[in-house]
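Priority: low. Protein: Recombinase. Input follows.
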Amino acid sequence: MTIHLPKLKEPFEPDRISWRVGSTTKDKSKGMALAYIDARDVMQRLDDVCGPENWQCDYPHAAAKTVCRIGIKLNDEWVWKSNGAGDTDIESEKGALSDAFKRAAVLWGIGQYLYDLESPWVTLDTQTGNDGKVYVKGIAKHEFTRLHKLLGGKSSSQLAKGDEWAAFQNDLWACKSVVAIEGLYKELRKTWSGSWLEQAAEACAERKKDVLAAEAEATATPPVKNKYLEAVGGM
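Result:
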């Protein structure tokens, strides 16, 4: 089989691209939209261009990072390129493996064009918690039409799944414990897959941080007052 490496660099269909929130404004009303692809689409691209028998990957570990090497058989010799990633908060091992795999694939040109894609500031869906803090739920549904146009698409699976995603965000916000968040994610895994599940994992990880922070604040021991110092004027 002749392997045409330039084909690895070809753009994906717009419906295969997902978006996550990067940096946000101080009031969290706006955020930077960052495009990414699912690891399954990377695998399919390697299968289509190289053939399943002509590529492989492994995961050597380096310090706290998970490193992935992707090898492609060229002229009867294996050529390797590698990159790494740290653990994520939910399904840490699986998340690190997926991220490292996709980063190694970029070195072969897969999805590399996404790094040159505009990352526009978009309106965010937010909610104010009982503690008065503003929390990001995700990118506002109406923004996906604009984001999809950046990819040259005319329709978007993001929009088709918008209502389901909004329902998930409401359920996630209702979770007040780590156990509840992990239970919600476990249920999602039964019906969701691919980039939608990855995006949900990121949202669950952020919500988990918020819940843990709130629990820590609620259980913090107040400073013990010294009645003697109060009596003498706080000296």
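The mean pLDDT is 83. The chain has one domain: 11-217.
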